[in-house]
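BUG: 3D viewer hangs when loading the predicted structure for this chain

Environment: internal workstation, default settings.
Expected: structure renders.
Actual: progress bar stalls at 90%.

Input used:
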Amino acid sequence: MNLRRLSCVALLLGAGALPGPLLAQGTGDQARLIFSLSGGMIGGKRLWNVAPQPIQPSGPTDTFALARKIRSNLVVGFSGTYYPGSHLGLMLEGFLVGLGFEDSCNHLSSTGSSAVAAACTSIQGAEKAATSVILSAGPVFRINSRSPVSPYARLGAGLIFSNQSSISMSGSFESGTGPVSLPVYTDDHESRVEPAAVLGMGFTAAVAQGYQLRWELRDNVAGVQRVTGPAPESGVIPPHERVFKHLFSMTIGVDVVLERRRGRRY
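C-alpha cells produced before the viewer hung:
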C-alpha cells in the first residue's frame, strides 16, 4: 500500500515537469484558470457632515454647515481565478472604484464678509476626482460548473489604495491678484491605504469556446476616514476616524477560460 502511494507521488511530481497538453493527458486534471475583465457602476454614499464649523480667515467668525458624500462612479475590474476542482476556487482581483467626493456648504451665520461667502459658494457642489483601487484575494464557490450558466458567490479581503484625502476641504474666492484658497480642513495624508473587503454573487454564461459573459452584484466594503466633528478653527486637521462604507456595484464582464480536460485544452 505504501509503495503504491509512493508511486503515485512520484508520478505527480514527474508530471509537473511535462508540457501542458501532456500533463492534461496524464492526469485528467479538471482545473480551470479564468481571466476576467469587467466594467460597471458603483453607487455613492454619504460620508460625513459637520455643523457648525467656525470659519475665521481674519477678524470675526462665520459658521458653515459642511457635508461630503462619496459619489457614484464607473468601475473597472481585472481578476484571475483558479479552480483546482469543480466548485471551490481562489480569485485575485484589482478593482478600480474611483472613490471621488462631492461637497456641500451652507452659510449658517455671516459677519458680512464677501470672501467667506464666496468660499462657501465654491464648496457647494464641488466634486473631487480620485483614483482608488481595491486589491483583494479570497475564495469563490460556483455550482453547475459544466452547465452553460453557472452561479457563484465569493468573498475577498484586501486593501484600498486612494490618492485623495477624504478629510481635507477648501474653498476659494477672488481677490485683486487672482483666486485665493481658503482652507477649511487640512490633512497630513493626502493618500491612504485602508482595509477593504468584497462580498459578491453572480453568474457566468458560456458564449463561445473559451469565453464567458460574467454578471456580478457586489458589496465593496471600503475603509475611509471621515470627519467626526468641528475643528476649533478653520485650516487645521479636524477630529476624524476610520469607518467602513458599503458601496454597492454591478458589473458585466468577459472571461477568457483556460481549461484542462483529459488532454484537451481550449
